[in-house]
Amino acid sequence: ARRQAGGPYPFWTFMLNIVILAAGMGKRMRSDLPKVLHALAGRPMLHHVLDSARQLDPARMVVVVGHGADQVRAACADQPDVHFALQQPPQGTGHAVKQAAPLLQESGSGDVTLVLYGDVPLVQPDTLRRLLQAASAGALAVLTEQLEDPTGYGRIVRDGQGRIRAIVEHKDASPDQLAIKEVNTGILAAPTARLKQWLERIGNDNAQKEYYLTDAISLAVADGVAVESAQPGAPWETLGVNSRAQQAELERTWQREQARRLLEAGVTLADPDRFDLRGTLSCGRDVYIDVGCVFEGKVELADGVRIGPYCVLRDVRLGEGARVEAFSHLDGAQAGTGARIGPYARLRPGARLGARSHVGNFVEIKNSSLGEDSKANHLAYVGDADVGARVNIGAGTITCNYDGVNKHRTVIEDDAFIGSDTQLVAPVRVGRGATLGAGTTLTRDAPADKLTLSRAKQVTVESWRRPAKKP
Ligand code: UD1
Ligand code: CA
User: Fold this and answer.
1) pLDDT tens digits, residue range 121-154?
2) Are 349 and 331 in contact (CB under 8 A)?
3) Which of 83, 170, 378, 408 is catalytic?
4) Taking the complete model, does pTM exceed 0.85, yes or no?
5) Which protein residues are within 6 Å of ligand 1, measured from CB?
6) Would you list the DSSP string of 252-317?
């Protein structure tokens, strides 16, 4: 079936194929990991490209793999809509796309194939929609850009009427052509049936003895096919990564862009240059984020949330007005309205904190709920526990949830008071309103509303003398 790709432009109704080139070795990364699997904002560069590609609703996506093919395939194992073509050895971008040709879907003469690059991770769907729009009437469309320093890039050669006639690679360019500042970003969209024919005709009679995809442009001109161009929405969209230094630079560029979008949405960032988002962050009104925080996975912060400096939040949901103080680590956790967490708190997966609860310094909470208005303010481990409302957990309290083989639950009912330095040997239950004396090792259930304690009797040894040194 033909598909429609949405977006702010008029609908097009052709079948879209997307080919992503990822066969290069990435020698300058000096790494055992294939280049396209190196991370940007916490995810492989290739996954960023696949995400953007998917937003165009393609009929098929083909990744051309070569170096480290098995690793690249494995990294996409959970994305069944991704197909692979093997290019071995790499002999140029035209040769690469040719390997994908047998996998391209066709439904008629209006079909389009878009070529992207696994190491150009930040090209945005809006830019690609504009390029596809330029290609939608059967034209070949090239994404081009004006560069102050075009060194190394293929140059866009136009005629007197401004029509594109060819792309000439830097190494093959004449002095006149080298002066051209409009360059090929590498990304293009072409009519699928025509592209397949051009790929058969492209030769390797050039300075690098490679099959250049860019030779498709002069073949299109010779065939009387219009060649159009579009430009990226922002210059960073077409930046590629060839080295660790370029990776680090692009990471900062992207983090600044993400920070800019959050500022625009009304979030306060104490310093947009000291902000890292490696996933998605959605914020309500008047959220404040201090310096040095890292957000991973899916993080949702409601109105008025404040995050102190140097916190890590991964897959976290915080209710209105919740506060996280400095140096806290939250992973797979949620907290209700007005909760206070940290400084130096650790919430592990399955931590669920009620409204107005407090979790203070050096408190670890795992797979446990803490009810409304409950507190664990200092030095405690609460694991596999159901803690009710208005419970006070004293300093040094530990749920002994693990017997070396199995995990057991601890239940602490509403309004209980757990004295300092208590061990709750699970499975065990503390009844509603019960009080545990400091230092208790609780091995049996504590009844509601009563004081329960286990404690050796305190004695003073009258006859004792401190040993003294012999003279
Ligand atoms: C290419 C373009 C050039 C453009 C530049 C933009 C050609 C002939 N030239 O040049 O006009 O200005 O990109 O950066 O297309 N790849 C493969 N298999 C291959 C060769 C390359 O998968 O056989 C992949 C690489 O892994 C890389 C991408 O294609 O991701 C571009 O290859 P690269 O060799 O960097 O292209 P350039 O020579 O820089
Ligand atoms: Ca090359």
Assistant:
1) 999 999 999 999 999 899 999 999 999 999 999 9
2) yes
3) 378
4) yes
5) 21-24, 64, 87, 90-93, 95-96, 117-119, 153-154, 167, 169, 183-186, 212-214, 240
6) HHHHHHHHHHHHHTT-EES-TTSEEEEEEEEE-TT-EE-TTEEEEEEEEE-TT-EE-SS-EEEEEE
